Amino acid sequence: MSRVYIFDTTLRDGEQSPGCSMTTPEKMRMAAHLVDLGVDILEAGFPIASEGDFESVQAISRQYPWVQVAALARATKLDIERAAESLKDAKRPRIHTFLATSDIHLKYKLKKSREQVLEEAAAAVALARSYADDVEFSAEDATRTDPDFLERVSKAVVEAGARTVNLPDTVGFSVPDEYGELIGRIAKVLGDRAIVSVHCHDDLGLAAANSLAAVKAGARQVECTINGIGERAGNASLEEVVMAIKTRNDRYPFQTGIHTEKLYPASQLLSSIIAFGPQPNKAIVGENAFAHEAGIHQDGYLKEKSTYEIIDPQSVGVPEGRLVLGKHSGRHALKKRTEDLGFDLSKEELDTVYHRFTLLADRKKGVRNDEILNLVQDIVGRAAIAN
Ligand code: KIV
Ligand code: ZN
Prior knowledge:
The protein is an alpha/beta fold and 387 residues long. It has helices at 10-14, 24-37, 51-63, 77-86, 103-110, 114-129, 147-159, 176-190, 207-217, 238-247, 263-273, 295-303, 331-340, 347-363, 369-380, and strands at residues 2-3, 5-8, 41-45, 68-74, 93-100, 134-140, 164-166, 195-199, 221-224, 254-255, 291-292, 322-323. The site of zinc ion has 7 residues, from loops.
C-alpha cells in the first residue's frame, strides 16, 4: 500500500495563530508527543520570525536526530541562511522555502512579475540546496494561481533541486474536485522526480476533504495540525485526515505512520498548552465525539456498538465511549448507568427512577452521576447498593 507522509505543522502554522503561541519548553513537550505519535516531518518553526522559533528548531532537531525536522523560510537569502543555521545540528534537516505565485499576491503583496517570481523561486531552492539535501518549495496561494504558471514554477523548482513541491490552499478557497484536478495535473507532470504535498486551510470547512481528494489524485504528503489549529479557521486536522484514511481504507488505500491510539493524548496535551481546546463536537478528539445521548442511539449502541460508532474510541486513545444521560436518553441507558453505579434495580424500581429522571432531565443540560445516585437512593434506599 502506498505511504502518505504526515508533515505536522502544529508548531509552525498552528503556533502562529491567535491564542496558540508556545514557548520553547512548551514546544519541546509537544514535540515529544508528535515524535511518539509517528509524524514523518515535524515543522518546528519559522527561524527568521523570532529568537524563540530559532531556538525551538535548534532544540527539537538536537533532541530528535532521527526525525526529519523542517524550518520555514521565505524565498530570500536572509531567511534561508537563518533556517539553515537553526538546522545546523540536525541529522535530517529540511529547509522549507515558499513564495506566492497567484496574480493577486504578485500584484498587491509582492509587486513582482511572474518571471521574477519564477526566477526567485528557483534561486531560493538552489540556495537552500547548498545547505540541505532535503528542500521543500511551497507555492503560496497555489489554488488561486494560474495552473499553467503553477506548472512552470513546479517544474523549475524541481529542476533547481526541490524534492517536495507543496501546493497550498492558503486561503481555504478550493473545493475537493477542483483541488484533486490541480494536484493530479502537477503530480503527473512531476512524476517521481518530487513528492507533491498539500497544505489546506479550513476557511470553508473543507481542509480535510480537500487533503483527501488530493491524496487520491497523487499527493503523497499531507501538511496538517493537531486539533486543526492554524491561521484563521485553521489547517487540515491531522486526526481527521489520518482517521479518514484508516477508517475508509476501502476508498483511500494508503498507509500513514501514525500510532492512532496517541491522537487523543496529543490533542489533550496541546489543549493544556494553548489557550483553547477543540470544540465539543470536533471529530475524533472533541468531548462529544464518542458520546451518545439520544435514547434510540443509546439503545442501539448498548446492543451493538457498531450501530452508532464507526471508530473504536480506544483506537484513538479515548478511554471509552460515553453515554450522556439527558432528556433524550432512554430506559436502557439509565439501567446500564445504575448498574455501573452499583444498583440492580427491579423493573418497578427502574420505572420510578426513570420517571423522576425524565422530570429532572427536562430542566437540565445533562444529569450527573451523583444526581442519579440521589434519585436511586431515594427510591431503593442505601441498602440496595450492590457491594
Ligand atoms: O498556508 C500557506 O500557504 C503556508 C505556506 C507557508 C506553506 O502556510
Ligand atoms: Zn498555512
